[in-house]
């Protein structure tokens, strides 16, 4: 019994591997990974973000760490360097490390069991390991979900993104991983007009636990181009949403999910309710 | 069917039925003519008449007992038929009904399940195939595919692709509480997805004149006309 307790307590000290996936490309996986990683690090956790998009690396650009890459994740997995050497420390945020992808290899150079072994080593060093999954459901996806304890599915309120997210959710369930949902790029005005699916419609179809609603935010483009973390920008609604998502992932279940509201003036809203104008 | 004579209209007609020989005659004709015509016919079909069971049908007229008795005696003596009897009343009409009653009372107790019943959400990329009928307790998401050789019933929302009656049963139906499929097929007939009708009640698709028609299930009530509950 004593041995059992010991293993259990050691297990709980080990880090958690969370894969951020979506199926479809361009829905904001990389931005989500960078933002949640930064937010968790700001919470005081040791965080590693790993770019799994071998051959098409982006996460380093979004995090503004492009110019500091010497070794990459493939070098670390294949033993060409030490894990510490491949990790790039963020200078603005304490405890945040990036494992960049290799730009010259392709996804087939890594096997799922190699990823499991690699993440097992990372678990000892970090509290959270975030895997930025590539688009698609092929080798890169298999590599990313193989070591994962949890999954976050990023989805935008459009039909094609929902279709792909649904497929990915099915594949994750098949691997006994229960996914959570982030709905990204909501435009409240369009939802109010009925031109965009509401978050209830999306949750109805995907029927998984919702952990965050992120509003369409121009600051995301600014953050991506400048490499300044979104969560450090004071006036960013998306950054704010990602901070709350990180807190929820960190076990603070009581933080309510804020529904993005239209910024229309209250008089206009009342007028619309009364049927005056459009 | 053997007719008495080709030139003149015969008073007697003979045809083979499952129970034996069916003799139709006109009882208003004189007995001698009837006997002569019977002789002509029975002589032609001698190999069939021996020990045969004869049904004497007098059509819409009621034949006097004396006439039928005499003809019975005549046929038994001359052609050695087994028996002669009048036709049963409304035999042809009553038969299917008794069969259905039998079905209703006994048949479905022995019926092993032909339906595949699944509960849960069918997601994009998943494919479910049933040997006969398919019942889904849950939703079918866009991109999912459900296939059945018989009917498909979705107790939930149908957003995906549904193929019923595969591969050639066009009497199959597809029913869903919320009917918004991407595409449906019944038998070999394909119909593309329809815009949402806004109907809040169950709708079903069936084949009519080689086209798939979607109707409100409760108002059209397609199985209302059945006299007995039938096994599908």
The H-and-E topology of chain B, N to C, reads as EEEHHEHEHEEEEEEEEEEEH
Main β-sheet of chain B, in a few words? 6 strands, mixed
Name of the CATH first level of the largest domain in chain B: Mainly Beta
Strand order, sheet with most strands of chain A: 3-4-2-5-1-6-7-8
| Low-pLDDT runs of chain B | none
User: Strand tally of chain B, please?
Assistant: 16
Q: Quote the average pLDDT of chain B.
A: 82
Shape of chain A: globular
Largest sheet: spatial strand order of chain B: 6-8-10-12-15-16
- Give the topology string of chain A: H per helix, E per strand: HEHEHHHEEHEHEHEHHEHHH
Outline type of chain B: rod-shaped
* Full CATH superfamily name of chain A: P-loop containing nucleotide triphosphate hydrolases
**Oligomeric grouping of the chains:** heterodimer
Write a structural description:
The complex is a heterodimer of chains A (278) and B (232). By secondary structure, chain A is of the alpha/beta class. Chain A has a single domain, classed as 3-Layer(aba) Sandwich (Rossmann fold), CATH 3.40.50.300. Chain A is 43% helix and 15% strand. Chain A has 13 helices and 8 strands. Chain A has helices spanning 2-13, 29-42, 59-62, 73-77, 83-86, 112-125, 139-145, 159-174, 188-193, 199-206, 219-226, 237-249, 266-273; strands spanning 16-21, 47-51, 88-89, 96-99, 128-132, 150-155, 179-186, 209-215. In chain A, strands 3-4-2-5-1-6-7-8 form an 8-stranded mixed sheet, with helices on both faces. In chain A, helix 2 (29-42) packs across helix 12 and helix 6 (112-125) packs parallel to helix 7. Mean pLDDT of chain A is 90; it is low at 1-11. Chain B is α/β, with parallel strands linked by helices. Chain B folds into 2 domains: 11-85; 113-220, Pectate Lyase C-like, CATH 2.160.20.70. Chain B has a 6-stranded mixed sheet with strand order 6-8-10-12-15-16. A 5-stranded mixed sheet of chain B has the order 1-2-3-4-5, with helices on one face. In chain B, strand 4 (53-57), helix 3 (65-79) and strand 5 form a beta-alpha-beta unit. In chain B, helix 1 (31-44) packs parallel to helix 3 (65-79).
